[in-house]
């Protein structure tokens, strides 16, 4: 089914997505896309890109040299290509259909070369098989679930694709922070963790994690982001990020 494209960043980017009920990009994608600002000419990978929201936001708002959207689902990869073209970003954006959990040999055959990215942004599946009730919609279930040990393999691939000193940006469930830190250990350091709260009085629902490949610098816990005020409106900080403004200094 064809759907009308969504306008994000105040209309600066249009995004065709699957029908409602399937996995669709929203605030998670915008927050992740603004987490790390690439240097002019840098190469950025969006891993598990779906329709390309994270990488395309970065391409629209920065002087990144090349964006690679990596997605295993052929239908989503086709939408990502369509979105890159519709936004006039074909010259800087490539789409690779690949499974991030296969062997290094298979990844290279698909076009994913080690030490080739300056920045990797990723929104990995949030659950392991058996740890939650999957969606009855196959595409949504696949986007949210992978096999046991999948997070460690996913972050191993992120590390493989990054150059030494390259930067990783990731968003995940808040309660998955211990598992994320375990999977990052030995591969990344200088981890900066920012909790994201739906409202100020509620527990965090997400964590944004930035880390540097090969660094030994200690972990930093940054001030939280609160998305909504008591009336359910975006807070000024959240509103600015959804317009495409950068994060304020910590």
UniProtKB/TrEMBL annotation:
PROSITE patterns: N6_MTASE
Keyword annotations: Methyltransferase, S-adenosyl-L-methionine, Transferase
Top-level taxon: Bacteria
GO biological process, one term: methylation
Ranges where the Methyltransferase small domain occurs: 31-133
Pfam families for the chain: MTS
Keyword Transferase: yes
GO molecular function, one term: nucleic acid binding
PANTHER family: TRNA1(VAL) (ADENINE(37)-N6)-METHYLTRANSFERASE
Official protein name in the record: Methyltransferase small
């Amino acid at each position: 089914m064809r759907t009308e494209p969504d306008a994000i960043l105040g209309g600066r980017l249009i995004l065709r997505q699957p029908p409602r009920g399937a996995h669709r990009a929203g605030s998670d994608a915008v927050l992740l896309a603004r987490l790390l600002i690439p240097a002019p000419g840098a190469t950025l990978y969006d891993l598990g890109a779906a329709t390309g929201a994270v990488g395309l936001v970065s391409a629209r708002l920065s002087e990144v040299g090349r964006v690679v959207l990596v997605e295993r689902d052929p239908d989503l990869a086709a939408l990502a290509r369509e979105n890159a073209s519709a936004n006039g970003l074909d010259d800087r954006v490539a789409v690779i259909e690949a499974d991030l959990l296969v062997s290094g040999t298979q990844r290279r055959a698909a076009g994913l070369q080690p030490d080739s990215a300056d920045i990797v942004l990723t929104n990995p599946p949030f659950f392991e098989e058996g740890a939650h009730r999957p969606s009855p919609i196959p595409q949504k279930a696949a986007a949210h679930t992978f096999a046991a040990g999948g997070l460690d393999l996913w972050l191993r691939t992120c590390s493989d694709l990054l150059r030494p000193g390259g930067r990783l940006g990731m968003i995940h469930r808040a309660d998955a922070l211990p598992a994320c830190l375990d999977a990052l250990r030995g591969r990344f350091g200088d981890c900066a963790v920012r909790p994201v709260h739906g409202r100020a009085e509620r527990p965090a629902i997400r964590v944004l994690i930035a880390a540097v490949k090969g660094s030994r610098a200690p972990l930093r816990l940054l001030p939280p982001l609160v998305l909504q005020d008591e009336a359910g409106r975006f807070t000024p900080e959240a509103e600015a990020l959804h317009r495409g403004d950068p994060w304020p200094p910590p």
